[in-house]
């Protein structure tokens, strides 16, 4: 059966032990370039070839399982050494092209690895939540249609004021998110904002104000956690996730 | 009183999938070119993750919604 080489991550060190990867396949390493190590699995192309993969990527269960397996490997490597994770589902036609990649782009990988050495990624999500008086934004009663009540002047004025108030709350919340992001970024080596998560995937329906990622020096982690704690409250709930392998700070497009 | 900061330090198998996919689909080294397949080559608008990456077609200016 034809086989391919699935690439998880690039690092400088070889782990003595690594968990299994996608489809429960063993993980091994390929050395090359200026002292680099690629973490890979040999995968059957009847499941990891182009056409089967295109089909599999439509299947959320498959994506979930594969993402977790990919993460398991990246996480294990990142826990031990500076790591450049590779994006989900990167499959080569054998080991040769992987070795070639390490040779050709070795300096770029070293630059990325230097950037994340001694640092870890932390996620901070901010949600607008019920403030102390219980007013909460998300469960407002549906606005009455003009035909439901008496569309009198007073009603329209109330409604207009209401809309203005809501717009103001919206603007303030967005400013608050910007402020939180700036403050966290200032304490970090780098920060970036991911798209707000879709409630149908996250299962959380509060308004997501911020989906941030921050690359933090190991020795400033406590300070970072403390700052995140201080920035929450007053209608904004913060959730910190991590530490993560530096997924959000190793973006590099390469051929 | 509600906890304003909850810390989600989880083992890899318990990390929220949505947080993971934010990173696995938007982060990391992207390789294109001499490959069997890279996610960069896949029309992400078509796959089941479209909800997650809902604005990818806006960014790239194509794809039916």
TrEMBL record, chain A:
Q: Give me the Gene Ontology terms describing cellular component.
A: gas vesicle
Which compartment or compartments is the protein found in?
Gas vesicle
* Pfam families membership: GvpL_GvpF
Chief place where the protein resides: other
Query: What InterPro entries does UniProt report for this protein, alphabetically?
Result: GvpL/GvpF
A single Gene Ontology biological process assigned to it is:
gas vesicle organization
Q: Which UniProt keywords apply?
A: Gas vesicle
Q: Which family does it belong to?
A: Belongs to the gas vesicle GvpF/GvpL family.
Q: Can you say what this protein is called?
A: Gas vesicle synthesis protein GvpL/GvpF
Q: Organism classification, top ranks?
A: Bacteria, Bacillati, Actinomycetota, Actinomycetes, Streptosporangiales
From TrEMBL, chain B:
Q: Which domain of life is it from?
A: Bacteria
**UniProt-recorded Gene Ontology molecular function terms:** structural molecule activity
Q: Which UniProt keywords apply?
A: Gas vesicle
Q: Which GO terms describe its cellular component?
A: gas vesicle; vesicle membrane
State where the protein is found. Gas vesicle
- What Pfam families does the entry give? Gas_vesicle
Q: What sections of the protein cross the membrane?
A: none
The record's similarity note reads: Belongs to the gas vesicle GvpA family.
The protein depicted here goes by the name: Gas vesicle protein
